[in-house]
């Protein structure tokens, strides 16, 4: 509610996210730490073979994601 009031944006359930060109994880919420490559794959456009993922807090397993074909970046 606050994000909508301040910035005019609304959030959706994570299961509704799809058709993305890239994904940015900017916070280290526990739910994000548990994301597997298979779950993350559902967020991207189907035509993408190389998925771009920016993990600002560095909470995910870089090696696992790179092995799964991700272009993985972290701070």
Topology:
Elements: H1 2-7, E1 22-25, H2 30-33, H3 37-41, E2 51-55, H4 62-67, E3 70-74
Parallel strand pairs: 1-2, 2-3
Quick summary of this structure?
Strands 1-2-3 form a 3-stranded parallel β-sheet. The protein is an alpha/beta fold and 75 residues long.
Notable characteristics:
alpha/beta; 4 helices; 75 residues; globular
Which shape, going by the Cα principal axes?
A: globular
Quick check: average pLDDT? 94
By secondary-structure content and strand pairing, the structural class works out as alpha/beta
* Major beta-sheet overview: 3 strands, parallel
DSSP strand tally: 3
Helix content: 25-40%
Overall number of structural domains: 1
Q: Main sheet: which strands, in order across?
A: 1-2-3
Low-confidence stretches: none
First-residue to last-residue Cα separation:
29 Å
What Rg do the Cα atoms give? 13 Å
Count every helix, treating DSSP H or I runs of 4 or more residues as helices.
Answer: 4
Overview of this protein structure:
The chain is of the alpha/beta class and 75 residues long. It has one domain (18-74). Helices cover 28% and strands 19% of the residues. It contains 4 helices and 3 strands, in the order αβααβαβ. The longest helix has 6 residues, at 2-7. It starts with a helix and ends with a strand. The model has no long low-confidence stretch (mean pLDDT 94).
